[in-house]
Amino acid sequence: MNEQNNAVETWELNTNTAKEYSKAEKILLPVALLIAILFNRILFNNLFLDSKHFNVGANWWGLINAAFWLCYLGLFYAYFWKRVKKDFVLWFVVACVAALGIWNFIFYDRGNVEFGAITFFVIPAVLMAHAQWTAHSFSWKSFDGAVRGMVLAWFEGWFVKPFTGLGEFFGVSASLVSNENRPVLKRAILGFVIVFFMMIFIIPLLMGADQVFGHYVSQIFWRMRFTSIVFHGIVIAIAFGLFYSFLWNIGFGENETATFDDPARIDNVISGIVLGSVIFVYALFCAVQFTYLFARAGLPAGMTFAEYAREGFAQTVIVCAINLLIFGIFLWRGPESSSPYAKFHLGLLVTLLALTGVMLVSGAVRLNLYIDAFGMTWLRLISAWFIIYLAAVIILCIVRIFKKKMPVIGICVMLLLVWYVALGYLNPDGFINWFNVVHRY
Predict the structure, then answer these.
(1) Is residue 161 within 8 Å of 249, Cβ to Cβ?
(2) What is the arithmetic mean of pLDDT over 225-238?
């Protein structure tokens, strides 16, 4: 008998100690619901269900995509205002995303299709990084160190966080339904909301079960397509849960700043061999550039200068980008400044940057000759744009050698975003047409 009493008391204790949810967690419900409705009406319906828009083109899709994400961004900032209002990194990202969104509204009927298609994916990708920066409260001063945590958090944002907060979604929803202390009007509204979601499932089933019932219901609601309502209701319900889970993780999840034990520094001998070998190969490559490309010395038999100069600029630019990655790794995990090898290591890095600069100039010369011969195209324009960006990165890397506290990775990432936005507002198609007309291609 005592065991039964203890069991009853334990059960009562458990039921009376149900998790209490904060007001902010409850307010998040209508925010997530509104985002889910906007997702269904603006993005999902126009991109996947409205057949008249299937053949409109990438720019129309980009316009719809931008419209939804700008609405999402407004609701995100309204909810997380206290957390985001003083973080200039977040405001910088917002300004760039807003500029990309506005670009879709200005140029959607006359903008470059390739740029619009890329922007379709760039906007949500950047906003995911924006959300993870909000969640983890990374610091600008430790931007370079936060990059590793940001990469992991970015993937978690897409594949983990939309699901790990579903338990909280159901828990908060249940707490609203079961709270008897709420005023009668609020409870009545909740009751009608529940009835509405139940009816969109039940009524179509009853209409299919009895034709007479279905006839009369159709006469009463002749303009309403219940199948469509049910489908959109399901989409909204799923999106509601996923968006709530994601936003709950941003605001209330375990978002401690991701930290990793720094890997051991690269051995002096290994770094010397690797950097020395790479520099030797690049030095030979640059010697060829000075001899044949810049000085235009005699080429091997059977090879014309036009053929030689107009090939290989893409490969050269890719190698330059790889060189900058190598520079970043060996600068990050190179020897301590107190090491006797530090100055020699620094000299190797400076040499690597100098050779990379020569290679970048080589790529630019090749690209310029190619454009002079065949005119400007989208791929050539974006290649030239990327070359200019890499040149800016090389300058930043040189500055970083002397200013050790400068967050060079953060600046390069932000510069890339600005560079991309600027490319859009250049109006690539208009610039390409102007360039080709002026140069008579």
Answers:
(1) yes
(2) 76
Q: Which residues contact 233 (CB under 8 A, 6 or more apart)?
A: 197, 200, 201
**Whether 135 contacts 253, CB under 8 Å:** yes
Q: Which of the 8 DSSP states describes residue 300? A: P
DSSP characters for 127-146?
HHHHHHHHHHT--GGGHHHH
Phi and psi at residue 110, to the nearest 5°: -150, 10
CA atoms within 13 A on the CB side of 151: 8
pLDDT tens, residue by residue, 44-54: 888 776 545 54
The pTM (predicted TM-score) of the whole model is: 0.80
Gap between the Cα atoms of 241 and 236, Å rounded = 9
The rounded distance, in Å, linking the Cα atoms of 320 and 353 is 9
**Which spans in 179-311 are helix H?**
184-209, 211-220, 226-252, 268-288, 305-309
What is the three-class DSSP state of 308?
helix
Whether 97 and 69 have beta carbons less than 8 Å apart is answered as yes
102-130 exposure pattern, b = at least 16 Cβ within 10 A, e = fewer: ebbeebbeebbeebbebbbebbeebbbbb
pLDDT tens-place string over residues 89-127 = 999 999 999 999 999 888 877 778 889 889 999 999 999
